């Protein structure tokens, strides 16, 4: 009931804001008020189609010459098998991690700073 009252109030407010609609135009009479007359009965004899002039036959197209075959591509020579990749020599692992006190100057982390 409350929803209906709210809708009615909203519709009333909207109708006040809108200008009055023009009156609808009078309905136009339908184009065909009378039933279409029954089709006239066909005559008993079949109708002949009017004689059409004979269509001149198109001149036959000359046969297209056969396209020359594309020359066969020379077969590519078989690629020689790739030589086996030589295995990398095993790197000698240090038995103990390099320390900064080594005097060699070459460790895996770059040259060691000279001890002071």
Please tell me about this protein's structure:
- This protein has one helix spanning 2-17.
- It is largely without helices or strands.
- The mean pLDDT is 65.
- Residues 16-116 are annotated as: Disordered.
Catalogue the unreliable spans: none
Q: What is the overall silhouette?
A: flat
How would you sum up the major sheet? none
Strand content: under 5%
Encode the helix/strand succession as letters. Answer: H
Query: What is the typical, i.e. mean, pLDDT?
Result: 65
Number of separate strands: 0
Cα distance, first to last residue?
97 Å
What share of residues is helical? 10-25%
List the helices and strands and how they pair.
Elements: H1 2-17
Summary tags:
little secondary structure, flat, 14% helix, 116 residues, signal
Question: Summarize this, please?
Answer:
With about 120 residues, the protein is mostly loops. It has one helix at about 1-15.
